[in-house]
Amino acid sequence: MFNFDFYNPTRIVFGKDRLDNIDKYVPTDATVLITFGGGSAKKSGLIDKVKTILGNRKVYEFGGIEANPHYETLVKAVEIVRSKNIDFMLAVGGGSVIDGTKFISLASHYNGDSRDLLKYGFTRIPFNIVGKVVPFGTVLTLPATGSEMNNGAVISYEHGKFAVMCELAFPKFSILDPTITFTLPKIQVANGVIDAFVHTMEQYMTFPVDAKVQDRIAEGILQTLIEIGKTTISEPKNYDARANLVWSATMALNGIIGTGVPQDWTTHMIGHELTALFGIDHGQSLAIVLPALLEVRLEKKRAKLLQYAERVWHINKGSEDEKVDLAIHKTREFFESLGVKTHLSMYGVNADKIPVVIEQLKVHGMTALSETQDLTLDISQKILEQAL
Q1: What are phi and psi of 163, to 5 degrees?
Q2: In sequence order, what DSSP letters do the residues of 250-277 get, joined into one string?
Q3: Are the CB atoms for 267 and 202 separated by under 8 Å?
Q4: Among 298, 333, 334, 354, whose CB has the most other CB atoms within 10 angstroms?
Q5: Going by C-beta distance under 8 Å and a sequence separation of 6 or more, which residues neighbour residue 116?
Q6: pLDDT at position 95, please?
Q7: Residues with Cβ < 8 Å from 141, sequence gap 6 or more?
Q8: Are residues 304 and 382 in the same domain?
Q9: Please, are residues 284 and 340 in contact by the beta-carbon 8 Å criterion?
Q10: Residue 218 domain-assigned?
Q11: 165 pLDDT higher than 80
């Protein structure tokens, strides 16, 4: 196991009827900016409920944060924070709203060009670069990204998606009420299951370092998602299934399973380009890339693939090759059982578009990916060809 530091200060408030805790954890004298997305939180009455709980606090609203939050939209919120002297924010939405709110938090008191914050990638932005931030809490409406309990965000700018990470960007608290997610469209739930699954795989499916606790927790998350995935889509008001999805998605990316282990975020890096170029949903892009990546990188990942086959899918018969092949097949089959297509051609993206994706990976510096940083553009091309 590698050396590691672990830090996560976010308070989780989980379960039914927990919205009232907002009053407990938002300072009573705060001037609050509520951030939200395309309007469903408003139409459902959730924003009004939140405002009622906030009581006599001065409250402003900022809606319209996109599914892939755009820098140009977020800087408008930064201006509101500055002009209205906002000193607390409340993100009501899914991962994109929370990601956008993190960027607003970091940018609002930044003295330079806020685009500077996009250049650090997976290197955490130093405290002294950011200085003061605006604290925020979240009310989660879509289980998927784990943004409600981590310090990372992904922000869209021009034709790219940029990772933004800073230890000052953890939410102060997050309200996780599974009942709030009951009305989500089926495709959003399916995308959320896949996002959580792939987050887990990218921290697990690398090479063994004898991190037994992290492996077992990761395998538990994967098995849970396999067990409840179809149920939580077909039975949206099944509280137990949805509660397990919400907590699985949070646990998949709150730092626990990534401590002391190698990580491979290639699936996300290629998937981000597919979303930016072709408008393929984030979860769908991951379902396309991961099975193809496992097929191309089988030898590099053989030991963990075999462990995955035996522990997660309970494949105990056959040769090693048969086990890992079947595990990859079952992974693709699982994604498709959720109603998500797993081949580029099914989204109208054919071989002639692959060079465009490769060029964007090159432009964004994604030329040495994977847990061993040996995944070149040529290998990314093979993965995309395998994904056709």
Answers
A1: -75, 135
A2: HHHTSSTTTTTS----HHHHHHHHHHHH
A3: yes
A4: 334
A5: 110, 129
A6: 96
A7: 40, 41, 46, 92, 93, 94, 180, 181, 184
A8: yes
A9: yes
A10: yes
A11: yes
Amino acid occupying residue 296? V
User: How far is CA 101 from its chain centroid?
Assistant: 14
Residue 158 included in any domain: yes
Number of neighbours of residue 76 by Cβ within 10 angstroms: 12
Q: Say how far residue 211 (Cα) sits from the centre of its chain.
A: 23
- pTM score: 0.96
Predicted confidence at residue 239, as pLDDT, reads: 98
Q: The tokens 């990188």 sit on which residue?
A: 297
Helical (H) or strand (E) element with 295: helix 282-296
Q: How far apart are CA 86 and CA 104, in angstroms?
A: 11
Calpha distance 330→197 (Å, rounded): 13
Judge whether 109 and 133 are in contact, CB under 8 Å. Answer: yes
170 with 188, same domain: the answer is no
In a domain, 6, yes or no: no
Distance CA 118, CA 95 (A): 18
Residues 253 and 128 in one domain: no
To the nearest whole percent, how much of the chain has pLDDT over 70? 100
